[in-house]
Amino acid sequence: MAGEKMPVTSAIRVLRASGVVYTEHPYDYEEKGGTAVSARELGVDEHCVVKTLVMEDDRRRPMIVLMHGDRQVSTKELARAIGAKSVTPCSPEGAHRHSGYVVGGISPFGTRHPMPVYVEGTILDLPKIYINGGRRGFLVGMSAEDVVRILSPVSVRVAI
Length: 160
Known about the structure:
Largest sheet: 8 strands, mixed
CATH superfamily: YbaK/aminoacyl-tRNA synthetase-associated domain
Radius of gyration: 15 Å
CATH architecture: Alpha-Beta Complex
CATH topology: YbaK protein
Number of domains: 1
Shape: globular
Structural class: alpha/beta
Strand content: 25-35%
Distance between the termini: 32 Å
Helix content: 25-40%
Oligomer: single chain
Number of helices: 5
Order of helices and strands: HEHEEHEHEEEHE
CATH class: Alpha Beta
């Protein structure tokens, strides 16, 4: 994909409509490579690559969780933070159904269905983040302030 002209995804449409200044970063996607591969391909710190996770609570209500690429989500702490009994990752099929994106290409922008968004609070301290642009092998670089402005996420401390 590197070198290809990037398609206009639902995420890109939202960013453009919101007046976000962003940079496009295509890279060669590797199945199950995760943020380690994207960080390596882009030459950036994996801590600045933000993964978009679709999860659901014990009542099967979906949510998006934004987490540093080099960290995991404590689902126990997340459940406590949002007042749920439990939180679990969605299956790839469930994540696609809720977001409209395939796993590996899930963006928090332009999802099929509106969902609450939770962000690891330390992400908001970063001057620039790299987050999925709505397709496998495609990240966008932008300010954390723009993420807050567009998504109005709830800040949580759930990284492990």
